[in-house]
Design goal:
Layout (H helix, E strand, L loop, with lengths): L1 H23 L8 H24 L3 E4 L4 E7 L2 E14 L4 H6 L1 H17 L2 H4 L4 H19 L3 E13 L1
Helix pairs in contact: 4-6
Length: 164
Amino acid sequence: MNKLMLVGVIVAGALAGGAVGFVMMPEPPELTEEEKKKAQEEAKKKAKAEKMAKKATEYDYLRLDRQFVVPIIEDGSVRSLVVLELNLEIEPGASERIYSIEPRVRDALLAQLHRTAQEGGFVDRLGTSSFLNELREDLRLALKPFLGDDLHSVLIGNIVRRDV
């Protein structure tokens, strides 16, 4: 019985201590306007990141089977070749329609890649992230007339420049 009474006293003491701590807990400090704005911005960033992560799983991916080969011409002769593997990030269910017009898709992509080559894009800036972002956007815009809202993004799977 003494052990049971000892356990009861310990439990009662712990509960009483917790209750006193809860009652005596100070109010959280008021945030300044700057801290409130910062907290709101962080909440917006977190929500945007969650939305982007959710969006990334909402698309289908279409792999264009054959590589794209673009010649780099200097002084009237081929100096190097750029070989690219491209994939399309598309709306779910659009792959069959896109495969049905694949020759048009490939033609539009090749035309844009040749324009990029003529402008010298593949010479000095090939490895920079800004160039790759510009190239993705240019390729997406080249496909917009054919694919409309079915296309979300053009993804570069691989890109290699080989001098000849």
